[in-house]
Amino acid sequence: MYAPTCRVTCPVHGVVTCCVPWARHNSRFTYKFEKVAAWMAANCSKKTVAEFMQISWNTVGPMISRIEKDMDINPEKRYDNPVKIGVDETSYRKGQKYITTVVNHDTGNVIWVSQGHGKTVFEKFFKQLTPEQCGSIELVSGDGAGWIDDCIREYCPNAHSCVDPFHVIEWGMEALDSVRREAWRDAKEKAQKKIETEDLTKSEEMALRRDVSSVKNSRTTLGKAPENLTEFQKEKIELIQKTNNKLYRAYGLKEELRLIFSSDNVEDAKAMLKHWKNWASPLPSENYCS
């Protein structure tokens, strides 16, 4: 749908395009059109948005900027009463290009974003806050990086630093995968030795190789929660339980770690964490550490 706009002569600003109720200032598109384009831009590339919406790709960026400006009328209010905040960096392009993001856990809103990562970048956030706002921060969650703790000690020493559940579970997954690779190497070595030294039938040899393959190809299965497993994946977990106790225990540790963060009761979570630490202690320190 197309609609003409009128040009008027303003005694102050000269010849300008008159305001219309269905579009933003300096925009040739309706509110709804820009809203759809911005929603797509959050989930697709600019090229995809441009092709689908039949617009130029360099038009998408200004649309996003106009919507962001409308949504953030008073930017300073984003920093009002920060109590629980979270910080994380993420790569957004190839070549190790990062942005650092700060969120307000109480509101769930992103309150600050900057290119780069590290202490010098995170310091820019605190320098925008007043001493009162820095003093109101009670908790800062992150990925455990040292530069986050350095900034906390310098700018809000009364705040507690903690690691967010996402990274804790990610570390648990990395430890589980380390155990899986170790279990696969051991199973492969034992199977090869048994094949070379014993007179096995063809079916016995195939069964032995199948058991080794089940460990090697179990990464996706071990990463899933039990309620999300397919029937085939459940059978693979049962086979691991029967043939590799160490790997199955590591899988159980990952799952119990996930359940700790899903608990709504602090005392229950503390008891579960204590049990988890006792259960994890026999594993090598390079896999699961307290």
Shape: extended
Strand order of the largest sheet: 5-4-3-6-7
Structural class: alpha/beta
Q: Alpha-carbon distance between the termini?
A: 62 Å
Question: How many DSSP-defined strands?
Answer: 7
The percent of residues in helical segments reads 40-55%
Q: Oligomer, anyone?
A: single chain
- Give me the Rg, rounded: 28 Å
* Uncertain segments: none
Number of domains: 3
User: What fraction of residues sit in β-strands?
Assistant: 5-15%
Mean pLDDT: 86
Main β-sheet, in a few words?
5 strands, mixed
Order of helices and strands: EEHHHEEEHHEHEHHHHHH
* Helical segment count: 12
How would you characterize this protein structure?
This protein has 290 residues and is of the alpha/beta class. The protein folds into 3 domains: 7-71, no CATH class; 75-163, 2-Layer Sandwich (Nucleotidyltransferase, domain 5); 166-280, no CATH class. The chain is extended. The chain contains 12 helices and 7 strands. A 5-stranded mixed sheet has the order 5-4-3-6-7. A two-stranded antiparallel sheet has the order 1-2. It has helices at 31-41, 46-53, 60-71, 119-127, 131-136, 146-155, 165-197, 202-216, 219-223, 231-243, 245-262, 266-280, and strands at 7-10, 14-17, 84-93, 97-104, 109-115, 139-142, 160-163. The mean pLDDT is 86.
Layout of strands and helices, then pairs:
Blueprint lengths: L6 E4 L3 E4 L13 H11 L4 H8 L6 H12 L12 E10 L3 E8 L4 E7 L3 H9 L3 H6 L2 E4 L3 H10 L4 E4 L1 H33 L4 H15 L2 H5 L7 H13 L1 H18 L3 H15 L10
Helix pairs in contact: 1-3, 4-6, 7-8, 7-11, 10-11, 11-12
Pfam family, one: DDE_Tnp_ISL3
Organism: Ligilactobacillus ruminis ATCC 25644
Protein name: Transposase
